[in-house]
Task: structure prediction
Amino acid sequence: MERLKSAQITNTGKFVLVLGILVFTAPARSGGVEYVSLGINVMLGVRYDDLRMCVATPAGVKGGPVADIMLDTRLHFTEDLSLCFKLPVMRPILFGLKFDMLQFEPEIIVEYRSRINDNVDLVLGPGIGLSLHYGPDYTTPDDAADPERFFAAGPIISGLAGIGFRGSSGREHIIGVRPFYTPLFSDARPTGTVLGAAIEGHIGLSD
Result:
């Protein structure tokens, strides 16, 4: 059983790599990068999680609210196609300092735009990422003095549906919905399932 779990964790990295290559071949074939833009992404949602501890819900509850603030970098290949790299900031720092836990979930999203008018776009696209966890499971009480911690990892598979708009500054802002699914593999626990959705807002910091 331990060998099987170890193989699953090892194969997670391979799965993310292969799927990432398949998903992101289109931008790579579209030509060079026209320009790069920077921004902040704010995410708030809910999730079902039958493996990890949720610090916002009582022991025994599978899942709860999820939130993060991320830095994002967009590589714009054309007016209609971009690749967004999302780097979580709030949750890794907060969980590490306050709860002695790790939840780190960087992600890449391919964004396709369909023009609605001069200032508004429909933004759609698939995403792939990596979820890393180190900490207690969902049955652990919040006041446990020395809870048992374990490591888990798995691929994040998601999709984005949103509206992009430009203000007077010309910077793009996006608000949308992102459903996501993550299988989590661990030597210490059965395979976990994370399933949820979040409302996300991107605030452009550069043109």
About this structure: Residues 2-29+37-204 form a domain with the Porin fold (CATH 2.40.160.20). The helical segments are 2-23, 25-29, 90-99. The mean pLDDT is 86.
